[in-house]
Amino acid sequence: MYLIKKNQYNMKRLFITVTAIACITAACNNNPATSTTATTDSAATMSNSKSDMLEKNKQTALDAVQGFNTHNLDEAFKNVTNDAVDYGEGTMPVVKGLDSIKASAQMFIKAFPDVKGENLMAIADGNQVAVFGDWSGTFKGEMMGMKPTGKSYKVKDVDVFTFNDEGKITEHRAVQSMQTIMMQVGAKMKK
Fold this sequence. Notes:
alpha+beta
């Protein structure tokens, strides 16, 4: 009888110990799942944040191009930093500073008052957005000493905008050469 009670006592102890170990193991196994979930949630939030920033930058670039398209330069440049740089497509001098870039854009609009971009499409990668479009205009006003010819141009172009972490445009580059536009309108650029 003594052995039976001792065995029952040992069985209870063993049962309690095994149960305690099972509970501890289950608790330990749940913590990594919570941690993994938190990490996964954090990664998803970061991914969503990057995706949101890409979409915001795309919209900002499209808004800038549309502002130029409607000749509303305040709208076109509202999200451009004061120290922005316009590299153009590389054949013309680099334009530095928001005021200088705006003045350059204003000069172009005066020379080509019907300038228009169509079929605009934006693609974003990292901190850059490329806006593709079909551009046209008629050379009706003097530009950089060149007399207007009344002829039109039509080109495909890509504007590449670089953004800072605040979603502001810091750089602009183009693909289409100003020389191509001038050749189409029959104007000779000074060297």
